């Protein structure tokens, strides 16, 4: 299952298991069936399912982010919105161009596009599932009330998507946050561990972003080349049926070969997409979540330092000292709490990351080998037939 | 036509009968048909290889396909004008028309001269000489002794600015006797090649010979080179052109008639070649060419030929279909070349980003594995690039050549239509003259009658001659085309087979390299602890 691509060390915990058992794609939305098995007393039953849409996942994620209690944790990144636009556009273009190609070509391309649609669909299911599993595996987040409501409440959560005003607010919040983030990042941390993590994450995040974009482009070129081979195979087939010389058998054999190798090439591109591109995309989001954690800690540190300065001032002026002392206490506690959990979170992040990369790189290499060997065998056997056929 | 000599003066031997006969008949036909040809070229062009005259006979024959050493379609003429003085002439007693239905047939391909064999008969040789043109043993033998190598190399830029041009070294290595030396090297420029093609086309196309087309001009490509841009695209352009010129020359000399053509020989051998100015697009000759092309196109639409020979109709349809499919295939392959180049570039770019990621990764083992991944991807990018060159130079260029060749083939079919039209027109004129003659009886005054009658009689004779000539020309061009198409198809089969096998081998190599690279990487990935 694709979910295991990034969730390598989530133990199958009998107390709470979550998965997406089914999904339905309607015109402009996807309905996920979230299935839970749990021995926890919080739930009314041991096993149950609800239907959720993408917006409800986002609501859950945002509720984590906005919860001060969770400031010291890496919030599992929200799954990206299901995006079938590109695929739908291609299907539409195919429909329009139906007249310009032969029936076989049309059927073939239609099958291709349908397979692509299915692949995108499977991916979006996997990404939503990964999110839920990460939450379920987190010792603190799994106890979250909203999460339980999400899992159990079998009515529509009536979570409306953010309206324009709210989206604009979010946009400004992000701008402020990134500006702030720059300021906070500039503050040198006393703690070596966090200082190192900050530098590391900043660079790592950018590098992953670039690698992810480049790998997407590479895979797209690969798919384009496979499409060309598809068309070549079709034309060779037509040539083979029309040719009056000995070449007809030749063309038919080569057409057959290209049909098969094309399928393999398409699978290579798909596997690279799954094992490499998706991995990079996921860690792009995770590294952002880790950065967010560091930002929150940094913010807390700045608040704490400010509170200290305010306390000193208050003491000097002997005015509102108690208030200043309380504020300072609160800030101190907050900061220390975050620091403590953040350290563990970041260490876990590294462990997860290394394991995920290892698993995926190994699987990628194994799949590439499998496909190359398959391709080679097809080519060699065809060559044998063609050469012997002189 | 004069007598058909048994003893062949060209090969100085008692060659197989049919080959000599046809050579001579072709020679005389050429003499009558060509107007623009200079006498010097005659001896060269007359030497078509007789072996290639073995081809299918007319399809009206209800029996199995027959050998036709001579042209034995019912409407053609067999050997005529026997020379009774020549003791060696085998056809001394031959009947004028060789009918397919004649029951007495005996093999004509006997070894050694035997002037006593009469009457001349031809037996049906179903097993060897059936409809597919690629079973000609004698022709095969000749092919194997076809010993000539041509290379086009060392492109050099001569001159500066817009007057600059590229000069290529053309080297010919051969043991054939028609060449004056075993090895000869000359310098030629692109317009020289175009000039050669232009001459060959004007000499041979109207006879039904498929003259290989020259590579296309490219104003954009050449301008870049002239301007002096030393970038990758102009280097690639020159290489593409060099390769195309080489293929053009090889195809031209593969044609047995063209190989012996004096223009070809001059092109390959003589150090100085008069500049072919008429190949420029905007020259007077260029404009004339365009006008002629337009006129031809119009004529093609108006000529409605009664095709009595289903072979031609079938072949034309086949070539039409082939044209469509090859163009489609060519377009797809060009797209593949483009996408593979893109893939190579994107893989290289990804490799770099993976290396950077590996650098910033703080887990040592993972960092090393990512660097290794970057290296693998870099090697793979090179593989993709090499593969795209193979895609291009092997397949795409071959397809491009054949698309142009098929245009030449279609042109030759058009020439046949023109010959038919000319023949029909002559018949119409003859008819008119005859009608005019008939009218004369009632029309003129008695004193002018004799003169007018004489005049009209002369004209009638003239047009009778033209009708016969037209018919002969039409038969000849039909015969030539049959032979040419046979040769063309044979070459096509060989070319495609060879190229496709080479291409598949290149694909095999790519996969083998891929396996090597990933096998080296796998333990690195597994070593991530």
UniProtKB/TrEMBL annotation, chain A:
Homology family: Belongs to the sorting nexin family.
Protein name (Swiss-Prot/TrEMBL): Sorting nexin 6
Keyword Protein transport in record: yes
Domain of life: Eukaryota
Annotated Gene3D superfamilies: Arfaptin homology (AH) domain/BAR domain, Phox-like domain
MF (Gene Ontology): phosphatidylinositol binding
UniProt keyword annotation of Ribonucleoprotein present: no
Domain PX stretches: 1-157
Biological processes annotated in GO: protein transport; retrograde transport, endosome to Golgi
Entries under InterPro entries matching the protein: AH/BAR_dom_sf, PX_dom, PX_dom_sf, PX_SNX6, SNX5/SNX6/SNX32, Vps5_C
From TrEMBL, chain B:
GO molecular function term, any single one: phosphatidylinositol binding
Localization (cell): Cell projection, Lamellipodium; Early endosome membrane
Bilayer topology: Peripheral membrane protein
GO cellular component: cytosol; early endosome membrane; lamellipodium
PROSITE patterns: PX (PS50195)
SUPFAM superfamilies assigned: PX domain (SSF64268)
Keyword annotations: Acetylation, Cell projection, Coiled coil, Endosome, Membrane, Phosphoprotein, Protein transport, Transport
Domain PX: from-to ranges: 146-275
Family matches, as InterPro entries: AH/BAR_dom_sf, PX_dom, PX_dom_sf, Vps5_C
An annotated GO BP: early endosome to Golgi transport
Entry coiled-coil feature ranges: 453-480
Gene3D superfamilies hit by this protein: Arfaptin homology (AH) domain/BAR domain (1.20.1270.60), Phox-like domain (3.30.1520.10)
Region (Disordered): 39-143
Major location category of this protein: other
Residue spans of biased composition, Acidic residues class: 82-99
The family this protein is said to belong to: Belongs to the sorting nexin family.
Function description: Involved in several stages of intracellular trafficking. Interacts with membranes containing phosphatidylinositol 3-phosphate (PtdIns(3P)) or phosphatidylinositol 3,5-bisphosphate (PtdIns(3,5)P2). Acts in part as component of the retromer membrane-deforming SNX-BAR subcomplex. The SNX-BAR retromer mediates retrograde transport of cargo proteins from endosomes to the trans-Golgi network (TGN) and is involved in endosome-to-plasma membrane transport for cargo protein recycling.
UniProt name for this protein: Sorting nexin-2
Species annotation: Cyprinus carpio carpio
């Amino acid at each position: 299952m694709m979910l295991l691509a990034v969730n390598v060390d989530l133990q199958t915990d009998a107390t709470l298991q979550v998965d997406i058992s089914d999904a339905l794609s309607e015109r402009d939305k996807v309905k996920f069936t979230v299935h839970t098995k749990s021995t926890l007393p919080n739930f009314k039953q041991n096993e149950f399912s609800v239907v959720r849409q993408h917006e409800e996942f986002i609501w859950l994620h945002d509720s984590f982010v906005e919860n001060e209690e969770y400031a010291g944790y890496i919030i599992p990144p929200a799954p990206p919105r299901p995006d079938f636009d590109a695929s739908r556009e291609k299907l539409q273009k195919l429909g329009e161009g139906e007249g310009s190609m032969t029936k076989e070509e049309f059927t073939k391309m239609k099958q291709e596009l349908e397979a692509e649609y299915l692949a995108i669909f499977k991916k979006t299911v996997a990404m939503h599932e990964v999110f839920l599993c990460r939450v379920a595996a987190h010792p603190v987040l799994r106890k979250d009330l909203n999460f339980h409501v999400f899992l159990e409440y079998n009515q529509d959560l009536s979570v409306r998507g953010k309206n324009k005003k709210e989206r604009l607010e979010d946009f400004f919040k992000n701008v402020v946050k990134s500006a702030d983030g720059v300021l906070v990042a500039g503050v040198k941390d006393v703690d070596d561990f966090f200082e190192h993590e900050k530098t590391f994450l900043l660079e790592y995040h950018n590098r992953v972003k670039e690698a992810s974009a480049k790998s997407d482009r590479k895979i797209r070129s690969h798919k384009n080349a496979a499409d060309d081979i598809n068309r070549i195979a079709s034309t060779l087939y037509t040539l083979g049926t029309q040719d009056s010389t000995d070449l007809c058998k030749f063309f038919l054999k080569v057409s057959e070969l290209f049909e098969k190798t094309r399928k393999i090439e398409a699978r290579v591109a798909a596997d690279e997409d799954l094992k490499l591109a998706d991995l990079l995309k996921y860690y792009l989001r995770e590294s952002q979540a880790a950065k967010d954690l560091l930002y929150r800690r940094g913010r807390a540190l700045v608040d704490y330092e400010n509170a200290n300065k305010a306390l000193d001032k208050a003491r000097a002026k002997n005015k509102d000292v108690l208030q200043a002392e309380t504020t300072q206490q609160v800030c101190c506690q907050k900061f220390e709490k975050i620091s403590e959990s953040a350290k563990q979170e970041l260490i876990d992040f590294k462990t997860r990351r290394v394991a995920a990369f290892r698993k995926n790189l190994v699987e990628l290499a194994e799949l590439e080998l499998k496909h190359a060997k398959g391709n080679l065998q097809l080519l060699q056997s065809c060559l044998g037939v063609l050469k012997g056929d002189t | 036509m004069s007598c058909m000599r048994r003893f062949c003066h060209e090969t100085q031997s008692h060659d197989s009968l049919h080959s000599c006969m046809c050579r001579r008949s072709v020679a005389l036909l050429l003499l009558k048909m060509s107007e623009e040809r200079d006498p010097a070229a005659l001896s060269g062009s007359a030497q078509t290889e007789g072996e290639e005259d073995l081809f299918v006979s007319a399809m009206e024959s209800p029996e199995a396909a027959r050998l036709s050493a001579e042209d034995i379609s019912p409407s053609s003429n067999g050997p005529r004008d026997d020379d009774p003085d020549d003791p060696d002439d085998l056809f001394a007693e031959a009947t004028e028309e060789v009918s397919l239905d004649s029951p007495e047939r005996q093999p004509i391909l006997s070894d050694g001269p035997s002037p006593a064999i009469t009457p001349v008969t031809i037996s049906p040789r179903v097993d060897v000489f059936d409809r597919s043109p690629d079973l000609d043993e004698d022709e095969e033998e000749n092919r194997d002794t076809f010993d000539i190598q041509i290379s086009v190399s060392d492109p050099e830029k001569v001159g500066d600015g817009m007057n600059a041009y590229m000069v290529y070294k053309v080297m010919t290595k051969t043991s054939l006797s028609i060449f004056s030396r075993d090895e000869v090297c000359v310098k030629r420029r692109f317009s020289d090649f175009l000039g050669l093609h232009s001459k060959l086309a004007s000499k041979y196309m109207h006879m039904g010979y498929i003259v290989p087309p020259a590579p296309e001009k490219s104003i954009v490509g050449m301008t870049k080179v002239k301007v002096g841009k030393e970038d990758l695209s102009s280097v690639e352009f020159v290489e593409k052109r060099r390769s195309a010129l080489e293929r053009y020359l090889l195809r031209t000399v593969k044609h047995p008639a063209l190989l012996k053509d004096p223009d070809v020989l001059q092109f390959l051998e003589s150090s100085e070649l008069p500049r072919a100015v008429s190949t420029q697009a905007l020259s007077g000759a260029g404009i004339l060419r365009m006008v002629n092309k337009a006129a031809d196109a119009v004529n093609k639409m108006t000529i409605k030929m009664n095709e009595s020979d289903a072979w031609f109709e079938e072949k034309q349809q086949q070539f039409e279909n082939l044209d469509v499919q090859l163009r489609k295939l060519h377009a797809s392959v060009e797209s593949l070349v483009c996408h593979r180049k893109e893939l190579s570039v994107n893989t290289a770019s990804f490799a770099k980003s993976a290396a950077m990621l590996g650098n910033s990764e703080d887990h040592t083992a993972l960092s090393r594995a990512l660097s290794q991944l970057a290296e693998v991807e870099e090697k793979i990018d090179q593989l993709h690039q090499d593969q795209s060159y193979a895609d291009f130079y092997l397949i795409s260029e071959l397809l491009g050549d054949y698309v142009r060749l098929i245009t030449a083939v279609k042109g030759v079919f058009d020439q046949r239509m023109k010959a038919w039209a000319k023949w029909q027109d002559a018949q119409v004129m003859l008819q008119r003259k005859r009608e005019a003659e008939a009218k004369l009886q009632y029309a003129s005054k008695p004193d002018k009658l004799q003169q007018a009658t004489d005049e009209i009689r002369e004209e009638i004779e003239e047009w009778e001659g033209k009708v016969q000539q037209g018919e002969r020309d039409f038969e000849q061009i039909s015969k030539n085309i049959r032979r040419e198409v046979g040769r063309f198809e044979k070459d096509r089969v060989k070319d495609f087979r060879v190229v496709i096998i080479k291409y598949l081998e290149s694909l095999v190599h790519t996969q083998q390299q891929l396996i090597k690279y990933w096998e080296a990487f796998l333990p690195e990935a597994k070593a991530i602890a």
